[in-house]
Specification:
mainly alpha, elongated, golgi apparatus, 47 helices, ARM-like, Leucine-rich Repeat Variant, single chain
């Protein structure tokens, strides 16, 4: 309660003061008279009746207690020198808004707290009542006292500053005198000079130890005992020298530098020591430089005193000049009748002034005629006028009123008026745009910062609540943004209850995407300030709810703001890796168990994307809980090892605190992993021993044919490995995958195959882990893995879905095209026909994304090599790849080479009875025909399909016949949607369909009905096309004639004169 300037009064006991007050009040009650019989105080109390307080409220005695004047109590406290009590009494009155002049004058006068003489009093001197006060040890006790706070006039502040400077000057002189007294006393305790001469002349006689030397040696001996673990001896030594403080060297003497320890003195005993200083300085420790410094400060204070005195004189002269100017101006410029020089009656003056055209009857007239004369009246006037001003301001310019409205709402004394002004603020613009909303939000934050949490809760939040269901989305958007912007300025109870409920309601009920997006961002801000652990489950449910939102912009806001803020909170709670991440993993596993017959890929994407957003905070937890954290020293910028964050909140440097600290931690992190291991590193051990095995097990359970799931998990592992670093990936992640995959040839089972290689583990490991780093050794490892997988799957006759998924995922990135072609060339030249077949089929997947140059240089030569393979199965495997080239490539030379190769398959007699080859060709034609070049389709595909259909009519083996017929049916169904010329339709398409119908009549009657319908439709098209061609030629000719006529007509119309003959010639020319 007491200011620091009056610290010298603290020795008085508070218990003593309270006892004194109780005693006097009790005496006053028993005697029924005023215990302070001071006539001057009573007279002042009578002169100031309003400055009394009712002491019954603080008196612990009976209700019938008499009231005592505050001033009387203050006078008695000062008289009896109860200065601390008087100061506390004065402070409490100030806090209650009741300033007592007696106490104010007493404590603002520095003369009440200084000695009357410069000589320090003796130790046994006792000051009587009213005597000078003992001074505190510091010479700057009163230097920070703001005496101008209670100033009544303009000159008092300068006078009091001068008084304070004079007081400090006197105290500095007292300090110098005290130092000189100590010097004299120390000199008297010295050994007489004659005795010192005797000691020097007789070396065998040792000079007695001086007090200063004894204290110094005691300090060094105690220090030696402590450093060498002689603690009990040190304690005993300290007890025997209880007059010395062994923890502070300054206790030995004034301004004496500390010597080296005993060990250093022993080692240097043979070397000459530097010459000692003067006897007075060494023995007593008085540094005359300190005295000179103090005298210099005294001279500076004197100069400052003189300059302040000159400023006071200048201010006094200015005051006199201002008074003179004011008098002159008043005399010359105030109207004569106001100076009462005219003897007009008040009634006449009023009647005379009534002829002035003034209007004070209306509201505005009353406001204009009543000029505000204080800050409060200005606020009242603005509160009355603003509701009438706002409706008359243009909508596009109303944001200019925001500062005025907010300032008035902050300072207006009436709650009702403040509520009306804030209502105007939130309804200022009917549908505020982005810039206007930002301006209103800026004003709301400034208002909240100015008025504090209580008024924000009472005045701003109701305005938000009123508009939570407003019909305009822009107004609801303002509410959602306000909840986030005001979160730091709200009471924590309201922040985690009312505001959280408001945002949750808007998230579930609002139909506008932009409103829900703002709600999610505000929820993220709330999660950054919430501190109630019981709200964790509600936050987790809000995260899942917002992640399932149908709007992409809402989901993006979840990943950018909400999840990082929620992860930061769970990190503080210690539940990021113990609750949040395990909860998401459990939901993924449950989803996989429920989706055995059909996986909900959208939900899997939701959970996996949330896990992916938690990778940066998880890595930050690993770094912050590492064994080396305390050894981190700031370094420069970090290398670019992290993937680009989705938002600044997902930047690991922002989570850690700075890029320099992150750089230092990363260096120690890599060193720890490479040289010291993970012993005692609980957070990283959890990642290695629990998180990674669970993720790898989940990966093995997803469907490898689901390209979406493979892509999601590949991206997750890529970000995971990039974040945790190359050393972690090589030493912790890759070994766990390799242990499960086991790619050595000894594990190849030719009968059943290797089950794990057929699952999604292969593509996710290849595309998510092995592609994290793109150096030469990493690329070699990826090539070797893909070659091993291709060989293993081929030799074990296992499905190729996992290898296909790897090629599809990698083929989407052109960076890996050369690498994949290297892998396929390994298969082309492999000794096993099974591997060569696999390589041929993989070309089909790769051709679509590779540029035509690579196709011409690398793909087509490899396929032609395989098409002449001794094994017929290898040659057949190249057909889908050739068909894909026909579908995607535009170079005529390439197309001709492929066309020739396919023609050799169809026309070479050695392939006439190759049922599987014909099946593959028909399947390929049906797949690529609709997208192939029309000329290739009309001249090559359809004629050869016709030949195959005709040949199938004479097929003797029924199973082969039905297989060919079924494939032909699929091919013709796909090609029937294409535009086919009349010639090809008549010569090849319809005859092929009729041949196929002949087969289906015997083999599959239900297909025969469909084929008959298709034939009928094609015949109708042919007939209609013939009629349309005839009519079309006529219509084309007529349209050409019509266009020509119209053009000529319009051109001639501009050249016409009034002659009607020329107008007739225009139409005559086109008859």
């Amino acid at each position: 309660m007491c200011p620091a300037q009056f610290s010298f009064l603290y020795p008085l006991s508070n218990h003593f003061i309270l006892a004194w007050i109780a005693k006097n009040l009790y005496s006053a009650k028993m005697a029924s008279v005023n215990p302070f019989n001071l006539s001057d105080s009573e007279e002042e109390a009578e002169r100031r009746p309003n400055e009394t307080v009712d002491t019954e409220r603080s008196n612990p005695f009976s209700p019938g207690e008499t009231r005592v004047s505050v001033d009387v109590i203050a006078a008695q406290l000062l008289r009896d020198q109860y200065i601390l009590t008087a100061l506390e009494f004065h402070t409490e009155l100030l806090e209650a808004g009741r300033e007592l002049p007696r106490l104010r004058d007493y404590f603002s006068n520095p003369g009440n707290f200084e000695r009357q003489s410069g000589t320090p009093p003796a130790k046994d001197q006792v000051l009587g009542p009213g005597g000078p006060l003992n001074r505190a040890g510091s010479i700057s006790t009163l230097d920070s006292l703001d005496f101008a706070r209670y100033s009544d006039d303009g000159n008092r502040e300068s006078d009091e500053r001068v008084a304070v400077l004079e007081f400090e000057l006197r105290k500095a002189k007292e300090t110098i005198q005290a130092l000189r007294a100590n010097l004299t006393q120390a000199a008297e305790s010295e050994v007489p000079s004659q005795e010192r001469k005797n000691f020097k002349s007789s070396p065998e006689i040792q000079e007695p130890i001086r007090p200063l030397e004894k204290r110094a040696l005691n300090f060094l001996v105690n220090e030696y005992l402590l450093k060498n673990e002689y603690k009990l001896s040190s304690i005993t030594f300290s007890d025997e020298n209880d007059d010395q403080d062994f923890e502070l060297w300054d206790d030995v003497g004034l301004n004496i530098p500390k010597p080296p320890d005993l060990l250093q003195l022993y080692r240097n005993c043979g070397t000459p020591l530097p010459s000692p200083r003067s006897t007075a300085d060494v023995s007593v420790g008085v540094d005359f430089e300190v005295v000179q410094e103090l005298e210099y400060q005294i001279s500076l204070l004197n100069n400052e005193k003189q300059s302040l005195a000159e400023q006071i004189k200048k201010l006094q002269r200015c005051v006199h000049e201002c008074i003179f100017v004011f008098t002159v101006v008043t005399f010359f410029f105030v109207p004569c009748w106001l100076r009462c020089l005219r003897k007009l009656s008040p009634a006449f003056q009023q009647a005379l002034l009534s002829f002035c055209r003034m209007c004070s009857d209306s509201r505005l007239g009353a406001e204009v005629s009543r000029i505000a004369d204080s800050e409060e009246s200005v606020m009242l006037m603005l509160g009355r006028c603003l509701p009438h001003i706002v409706p008359n301001v243009l909508l596009a310019k109303r944001e200019e009123l925001i500062p005025l409205i907010l300032c008035t709402a902050c300072l207006h004394p009436e709650p009702k008026e403040r509520d009306q002004l804030l209502h105007i603020l939130f309804n200022l613009i009917k549908r505020p745009d982005d810039e206007q909303r930002q301006m209103i939000l800026t004003g709301c934050v400034a208002f909240a910062r100015h008025v504090g949490p209580t008024r924000v809760e009472a005045e701003l939040l109701p305005q938000c609540w009123e508009q939570i269901n407003h019909k305009y989305p822009e107004r609801r958007l303002l509410v959602a943004e306000s909840c986030g912007a005001l979160a730091p300025y709200l009471p924590k109870e309201i922040r985690s209850s009312l505001v959280l409920s408001m945002l949750q309601q808007m998230l579930t009920e609002d139909k506008a995407d932009m409103v829900r997006e703002a709600v999610v961002k505000s929820l993220g801000i709330i999660m950054g300030y919430i501190d109630d652990p019981d709200k964790y489950s509600q936050g987790f449910e809000l995260m899942l709810l917002s992640l399932g939102d149908p709007s992409e912009r809402v989901v993006s806001a979840v990943h950018q703001v909400f999840i990082p803020a929620f992860a930061a909170w769970t990190t503080e709670l210690g539940t990021l890796h113990t609750a949040l991440i395990p909860s998401l993993l459990a939901r993924i596993e449950k989803l996989l168990m429920q989706g055995e017959h059909g996986l909900d890929e959208h939900k899997l994407h939701v959970f996996l994307s949330a896990l992916q957003s938690l990778i940066p905070p998880l890595f930050a937890v690993v770094l912050q809980n590492a064994p080396f954290t305390s050894r981190a020293k700031l370094h420069g910028d970090i290398p670019r090892r992290f993937p680009k964050p989705a938002s600044p909140l997902q930047d690991v440097a922002a989570i850690i605190g700075s890029r320099e600290m992150l750089s230092a931690l990363l260096l120690l992190y890599d060193h720890q992993l490479e040289h010291e291991g993970t012993t005692g590193w609980d957070s990283l051990l959890w990642v290695v021993n629990q998180l990674l095995p669970q993720l790898i097990e989940i990966v093995g359970r997803i469907n490898v044919t689901s390209s979406t799931c493979v892509h999601e998990f590949s991206r997750f592992f890529w970000r995971f490995c990039r974040t945790f670093g190359k050393i972690f990936t090589n030493t912790k992640v890759k070994p766990q995958f390799q242990e499960i995959l086991r790619l050595s040839e000894e594990n190849v089972d030719a009968s059943a195959g290797n089950g794990i290689l057929t699952k999604a583990t292969v593509p996710i490991y290849a595309t998510g882990v092995l592609t994290c780093y793109n150096q030469e050794e990493d690329r070699k490892l990826l090539v070797g893995f893909l070659e091993d997988v291709m060989t293993t799957l081929s030799l074990s006759h296992a499905p190729l879905d996992s290898l296909k998924a790897s090629f599809v995922e990698l083929g989407a990135n052109p960076v890996y095209h050369e690498l994949l072609l290297t892998v396929l060339w390994y298969g082309v030249v492999h000794t096993s026909a099974l591997v060569r077949c696999t390589a041929a089929r993989m070309f089909e997947l790769l051709v679509k994304g590779v540029n035509e140059t690579l196709v011409a240089q690398r793909v087509v030569p490899a396929l032609i090599t395989l098409s002449s393979d001794p094994e017929i199965s290898v040659r057949i495997s190249t057909i889908p790849a050739f068909g894909t080239i026909m579908e995607t490539v535009t170079q005529k030379e390439l197309l001709e080479r492929v066309k020739m190769q396919l023609a050799s398959f169809l026309e070479d007699p050695q392939y006439q009875d190759q049922h599987s080859l014909h099946m593959e060709i028909i399947r390929t034609f049906g797949r690529v025909g609709p997208n192939a070049e029309p000329r290739f389709r009309d001249e090559f595909v359809l004629p050869h399909l016709h030949k195959l259909a005709l040949a199938n009519n004479s097929q003797a083996v029924e199973s082969k016949r039905i297989d060919i017929a079924t494939q032909l049916f699929e091919a013709y169904s796909a090609l029937s949607c294409c535009f086919i010329s009349e010639e090809v339709m008549v010569n090849h398409f319809l005859p092929g369909l009729r041949c196929l119908r002949t087969d289906m009549e015997q083999l599959s009657p239900e297909h025969e009905v469909i084929l008959s319908s298709m034939i009928k439709e094609c015949e109708i098209k042919v007939e209609n096309r013939g009629m349309a061609d005839a009519q079309g030629s006529m219509s084309i000719a007529s349209s050409l004639v019509g266009e020509d006529a119209k053009t000529k007509f319009l051109s001639k119309m501009g050249q016409l004169t009034t002659s009607g003959a020329m107008l007739a010639n225009v139409f005559q020319r086109k008859k």
